[in-house]
Specification:
Helix content is 65%, strand content 1%. The chain is an all-alpha fold and 403 residues long. The chain has one domain. Strands 1-2 form a two-stranded antiparallel ribbon. The radius of gyration is 21 Å and the shape is globular.
Length: 403
Amino acid sequence: MLRNLLLLWVAWFAILYSFQWLVTTRLDVSRPDYAVVWSASETQPDSNKGKIYLEEPFLNRQVAWDSEYYLGIAVGGYDDPAAGRAQDPVTGINWPKNYSFFPVYPYLIKAFMLPLNFLGVTPIATAALAGVVVALLGTLAGMVALWDMSRVYFDENDALRAVFYLLIFPSAFFFAQVYTEGLFIGLAFWTLALSMRKQWFWAGILALLASWTRAHGGLLFIPLGIAWLRTVDWDDLRKSCSWQSVLQGLWSLLPLAGYLTWRYSHLGVGWAALQTFYFGRGVLTLQSSVNSWVQAYQYSTTSGPALIYFMGEAASVILAFLASLALLRKHPEVASFSLAIVIFSAFSGSAQSEARYMLVAPALFIALAILGRNKTFDRAWTILSLLLMGLSTMLYSFNMWVG
């Protein structure tokens, strides 16, 4: 089965990259894009002018939007002047925009650049290649972990359907771009898989790395804590106070400790500030989130692109939410993590990028795979997902998808 997963992975990214090359070589799109309020000013033909990390021709189809900062950190560091700065209107501090992102992915890019320097291309081109290599390897690891987790519900062949649905989800192209989603599912999904095997140490280490890859990683303390609590014999623990059992429980706190360590470091303070005043996001900002969803809905009535984009964002959240609830009783570890992803993403203060955020909720693909046992659903979902993924991939390749 591992051989089949490897072949599926190779075929998937080969087809995806070929499609990205084909559509950008043969077709063109009408600019600007009106998907969200601000996209019209950012999707003009010259919108990337002066952004050196987005203008490099090599692998340019796999580089857009936030990729600029991951490459910037890898090549120029967090204080790279090429990234620009943004002033906090409250404190007046000018924060480097690179502070908006976590360190593990760009630092892995930097590490992978070392053996790739023999190619003799520019540092930015080398970083872009390293970025897609890290993302693709992380995706492969996530695929294997999702298949392993899915065997609770299916036999080995049926578990492959969950992986297939993961790869064809409408926003799944992000797994193969210079973005963190691929690496994150490799770390987070294996955290969950290892916790199911009661391998607490390695689960905790991977969860710690996940918490330094993106903010969602800090939520892994929830499924790890649930997994540990379900294995504890409380009578024995009261009688003998097993330090081994207590230590196993402490491993579940590593991702939360990792997130808090980052959050209150100098980089983390800058990250929190930029998230608030520059990106309009925060932790469970309920009122601003509701306002953002209402405004997004109202804006969606103004144009076709805005309506399609909003429908995709809302549908992704609803699907992931229902999937999490459906698995909550039988598989609380996977379901609780997925539910936390949904809640913290939907109420982060901004009603965009949700289709991308839902990619890291494993319950979504497991629940869809359960429904996929029905051949009619399987065919319909596969066709719909491939059509929407083709559209979203094309838009991203033209730097038009608001991710």
